Amino acid sequence: MNAFLDHINTQNADQLKSELTELYSSFEVARNYYRIKFSGTEVDNKLLAMYKEQVTQAIYPNKYMQGGLDTEKVDNVVQQLNSNATVRYYIEVCLHAVEECTNIANEFGGDFGEDFYIYFEELFDNVVKVILSEGLEDEYQIRLQEIANSACEGYGHYDQLQDTLSEYFGR
User: Fold this and answer.
1) Over the Cα atoms of the chain, what is R_g?
2) What is the C-alpha to C-alpha distance for residues 55 and 65, in angstroms, rounded to an integer?
3) Ordered per-residue pLDDT tens for the chain, 171 residues
4) Is residue 15 helix, strand or coil?
5) Phi, psi of 66 (to 5 degrees)
6) Per-domain residue ranges for the chain?
């Protein structure tokens, strides 16, 4: 980060505009970031659906039963949205990821190993913290409870999600 800050501090306004234009033109993640930023408080459902689909594709194997269960890919999508400007997208995509964890566990039996569930438990914990820090608990509390209640029993996943809710909501 220091090298980046040093670089931008040496640039004049025109050079910075040129670099931002190049970033926007070259990288879809930059275009999507600004698309979110320009939409204000409204969520672009088409863009949100794209992120959710990327998460689903990372979790589920393809029709040939290849791939899937890839928490690194899920994390790459989630991390693209981890900023103040994209907080609503971050929350929605994280919750979708935890829901998809439950869906695939129910569909395929759920024996995916402890590390798989730990990732989603930590993601759930992180998103609950964001929801509370943003003052959105009234909006999301019922959904959080539904997600925790529907979690699979394997590897202590259900208990961990319930414990997370108890920790933050005192239940």
Assistant:
1) 18
2) 16
3) 788 888 889 989 899 899 999 989 999 888 988 888 888 778 899 999 999 999 999 999 988 888 899 999 999 999 999 988 899 999 999 999 999 999 999 999 888 999 999 999 999 999 999 999 999 999 999 999 999 999 998 899 999 999 999 999 986
4) helix
5) -110, 150
6) 1-38, 41-169
How far, rounded to the nearest angstrom, does the alpha carbon of residue 138 sit from its chain's CA centroid? 20
Residue type for 152, please? C
pTM of the model: 0.88
Q: State how far the alpha carbon of 8 is from the alpha carbons of 16, 24, 44, 116, in Å.
A: 7, 16, 30, 39
d(CA 42, CA 106): 33
Q: What's the token pair of residue 14?
A: 């025109």
- As given in the structure block, the two tokens for residue 81 are 């949205």
Q: Rounded to an integer, what is the distance from CA 123 to the centroid of its chain?
A: 8
